[in-house]
Give the backbone structure.
Amino acid sequence: MKAITFDKYGVAGDVLHLEDIDRPTLDGDEVLIRVAAASVNPYDWHFMTGRPLIMRTQMGLRMKEASGLGGDLAGRVEAVGDAVTRFKEGDEVFGEVNGATADNPELELGTVAEYVAVSEDWLMPRPANFTPEEAAAVPLAAITALQGLRDYGKVQKDDRVLINGASGGVGTYAVQLAKFYGAEVTGVCSTRNIEMVRSLGADHIIDYTADDFTLGRPRFDLILDNVGNRSLRECRRVLTRGGMYLASFGQKHHKVMGPMATLLWMKIFNRFVPQDMVSLDQERKIEDLPFLTELMADGKLKSIVDRTFPLDQAVAAMDYLGEGHARGKVVITV
Ligand SMILES: NC(=O)c1ccc[n+]([C@@H]2O[C@H](COP(=O)([O-])OP(=O)(O)OC[C@H]3O[C@@H](n4cnc5c(N)ncnc54)[C@H](OP(=O)(O)O)[C@@H]3O)[C@@H](O)[C@H]2O)c1
């Protein structure tokens, strides 16, 4: 089968290969999926480039073995393991591959491929109102937005929530989920994305090319920052007393440290200010994808798919993602 692989860190054009590899074999609880679409996330970009360099202290200074690309997917069930109870051949599904967990620290990626074996626990039936591309866009980005708003921010009705980077993968889901929880939502985006972010439900828009969201009176209970382009001091001044600044970003521009310096400052700041300065660390929770699937099926959550690229243009897809200006999600069709 064909799959995108890489065995060293670097930019897409230097390291990604379209290869013929063996089809995955199935464990008892796994489902073999004929992939229709896989979305890519900044996470995949960081893992591919090995940047910021500080990540390599965990990932390894050099890659130890070849890796696949991508963690999100949608496709059709081709075969099921003996212990699988929820799916059968021919079912249309979406979900994510076995990312690293505390029990299983081995990270497995590789949804940008013709076939993938996935534990049935991390799959859901694809809602009929979603195309494979739209469904493949959901898992990592929407779960990040969900955990940020629900678990970290504990968003309640009428809370005032600002989403910086409202037009990106995480931001487009965050706007909709914050509205779902009853918040008054301000989205920060550029001029070309104003109508799109408004259509997702944002009550107020700040066009970052013309206005500065860190000016004005303290008015936000939660800032979900997917960009990290403003200082903590600037963001803090528009937070209410007791409000939270939640950083999801993994800035690419600092080659060595990435967002580490900011995250360290947040810990220091936290001791001296009345607001919470918190870093969002998305974790795998078995209940999140079923919850999102209900919202999708009910028409309460939709995907904005910016561009789709065929499998043999994975390099172009990763380069585009790496520019940091995707409108919603970037998807590779297989
Ligand atoms: N902590 C975690 O567990 C976790 C999980 C997932 C993702 N993340 C991180 O979260 C961040 C966001 O992810 P993502 O998937 O949303 O990224 P993304 O889709 O690549 O974000 C691109 C979007 O950011 C917007 N943007 C760029 N500069 C901006 C600015 N100055 N102000 C406002 N918006 C701006 C772009 O809009 P324009 O084109 O209009 O500029 C574009 O729509 C990334 O750093 C990622 O690594 C963290």
